[in-house]
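Hypothesis: this fold can be encoded by more than one sequence.
Test: take the C-alpha cells below, design a sequence, compare later.
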C-alpha cells in the first residue's frame, strides 16, 4: 500500500523521478504520455477563456481521471476530505440517504429509515436531477453529497426523477442530525416468527442481532429484512452471516494487488441458530447487504425474497495525496462463495415479489370496512373519555414496538411472502 501511495502521489505532483519511471516496462511511452499531459495543462492554462489557476487545473484533471475510472472512485479536495472525516465521526447534518452513480445518474441507493429523506418520501431508485436548482449532471458523487450535507434544521430542495412518474418533481426536506437504530426486532403476530430488521451495517450489528436471536429461542423462523440497507462495515456483514452458517467461505476480496486478496470464512463456534431463514431485499439493498443475502443464498442457508439488489460489490480505500487532500480508489471487488461478483449485477432473489399490499378477498374487504367503523366510533369515544383514549393509544404504540400486527403484515406483500416461505420451510424440515 505504501508503494501505491508513492506512485499515486508522485503522479499527482507530476514528479519525473527515476523511481517512478522504473515502475514501468516502457519508459519512453510513459515519458511521452506525461509530456502529453503536461502540454495539455499548459495549453489550458494559456488559452482557456477564463483565468484558471494551475492548481485548479490539476485538481480538475485528477477529478476527471477518478470519475472516469468507475462510479465510486473520487478525488477528495480539502473540503471533501474534511466532509468525509466529519461523516465518519457520525456528527453531521444531512438528509439520510445513500447515493451512488448508476448509468451516469446520481441515484438513491436507499433512504435510511426514520431520517428526513425517508419521511419526505424519497425512494430507492430515485434519480436526483437537481439539488437546490443546480443540475447534478457532470457532478461527482462526492460533490453531490457535499451539497446535500449542511447544518441541521436548514432546508434543501431536491428534484427527483422517478420511474412511473410523468415528470420530475421537487421534495423539500429539512436537514437533521442522522441517528440510526441499526438493528431492531419484533415478533410477527400469531406466527411465532422473529422479524429482524438491519437498517445499516454499523459496529453494533452482530452483537445486537445475536442478542435478539438469543432472546427469542422459541420462534419457528427468522425474517432478516435488509431492504433499503445501503451497507457499511464488511466485518459486520461477515459476522452476521456467521451467526447462521457453520463453515465455508462467506465472501472473498480480490484485486490487482495480491496483498489486497483475502477470504472470510464462517466458524462453527459463532453459529447460534439453525432456524428457517428468509432474507428480504430490494433495489435499495447494497454492498454489505448484498454480501449477506448473496452468501446465505449461495450456501443454501436462506431463501432470498423481494427484488433484485443494487449491485455494489467493490472495495474503496482512502489514499492521502498530502495532509489536506486524498483520493478514494477502488482496489478490489467482492465475490460470493460461488465465485460470482455482485458488481453492477446484484443478487437475484429466489422468490421475486414486488412491493404492495396483499390482495383482499370479499371477506377481508368487509373486515376492513368494519375496522374503519370501529375507528370512527373510537374517535367519538375519545371526545367523551380522553383518559381512556390515551390509554388505548399507549397500548397501540406498545404493540407497534413489539409486534408486527396482522394488518401491517397484509400491508407489506413482500414480508407476507417471506412469512409464507418460512411456513413452507417448516413443513419440509
Amino acid at each position: 500500500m505504501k508503494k501505491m501511495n508513492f506512485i499515486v502521489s508522485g503522479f499527482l505532483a507530476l514528479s519525473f523521478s527515476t523511481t517512478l519511471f522504473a515502475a514501468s516496462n516502457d519508459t519512453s511511452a510513459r515519458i511521452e504520455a506525461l509530456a502529453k499531459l503536461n502540454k495539455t495543462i499548459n495549453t489550458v492554462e494559456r488559452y482557456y477563456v477564463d483565468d484558471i489557476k494551475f492548481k485548479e487545473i490539476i485538481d480538475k484533471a485528477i477529478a476527471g481521471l477518478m470519475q472516469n475510472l468507475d462510479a465510486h472512485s473520487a478525488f477528495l479536495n480539502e473540503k471533501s476530505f474534511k466532509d468525509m472525516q466529519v461523516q465518519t465521526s457520525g456528527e453531521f447534518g444531512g438528509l439520510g440517504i445513500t447515493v451512488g452513480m448508476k448509468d451516469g445518474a446520481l441515484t438513491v441507493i436507499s433512504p435510511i429509515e426514520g431520517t428526513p429523506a425517508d419521511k419526505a418520501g424519497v425512494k430507492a431508485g430515485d434519480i436526483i436531477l437537481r439539488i437546490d436548482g443546480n443540475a447534478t449532471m457532470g457532478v461527482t458523487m462526492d460533490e453531490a453529497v457535499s451539497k446535500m450535507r449542511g447544518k441541521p434544521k436548514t432546508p434543501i430542495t431536491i428534484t427527483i426523477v422517478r420511474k412511473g412518474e410523468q415528470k420530475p418533481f421537487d421534495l423539500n426536506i429539512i436537514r437533521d442530525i442522522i441517528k440510526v437504530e441499526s438493528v431492531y426486532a419484533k415478533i410477527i403476530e400469531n406466527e411465532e416468527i422473529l422479524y429482524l430488521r438491519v437498517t445499516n451495517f454499523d459496529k453494533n450489528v452482530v452483537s445486537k442481532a445475536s442478542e435478539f436471536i438469543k432472546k427469542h429461542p422459541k420462534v419457528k423462523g427468522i425474517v432478516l429484512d435488509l431492504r433499503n440497507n445501503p451497507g457499511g462495515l464488511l466485518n459486520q456483514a461477515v459476522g452476521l452471516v456467521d451467526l447462521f452458517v457453520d463453515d465455508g467461505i462467506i465472501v472473498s476480496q480480490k484485486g490487482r494487488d495480491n496483498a489486497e486478496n483475502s477470504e472470510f470464512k464462517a466458524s462453527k463456534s459463532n453459529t447460534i441458530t439453525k432456524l428457517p431463514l428468509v432474507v428480504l431485499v430490494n433495489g435499495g439493498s447494497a454492498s454489505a447487504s448484498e454480501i449477506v443475502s448473496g452468501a446465505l443464498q449461495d450456501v443454501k442457508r436462506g431463501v432470498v425474497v423481494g427484488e433484485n439488489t443494487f449491485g455494489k460489490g467493490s472495495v474503496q480505500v482512502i489514499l492521502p495525496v498530502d495532509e489536506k487532500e486524498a483520493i478514494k480508489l477502488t482496489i478490489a471487488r467482492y465475490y460470493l462463495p460461488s465465485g460470482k461478483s455482485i458488481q453492477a449485477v446484484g443478487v437475484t432473489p429466489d422468490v421475486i415479489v414486488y412491493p404492495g399490499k396483499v390482495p383482499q378477498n370479499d371477506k377481508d374487504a368487509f373486515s376492513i370496512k368494519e375496522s374503519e367503523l370501529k375507528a370512527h366510533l373510537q374517535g367519538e369515544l375519545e371526545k367523551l373519555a380522553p383518559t381512556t383514549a390515551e390509554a388505548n393509544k399507549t397500548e397501540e404504540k406498545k404493540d407497534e414496538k413489539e409486534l408486527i400486527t396482522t394488518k401491517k403484515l397484509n400491508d407489506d406483500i413482500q414480508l407476507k411472502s417471506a412469512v409464507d416461505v418460512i411456513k413452507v420451510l417448516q413443513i419440509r424440515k
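The longest strand covers residues 326-335. The first helix runs from residue 2 to 12.
Hypothesis status: open.
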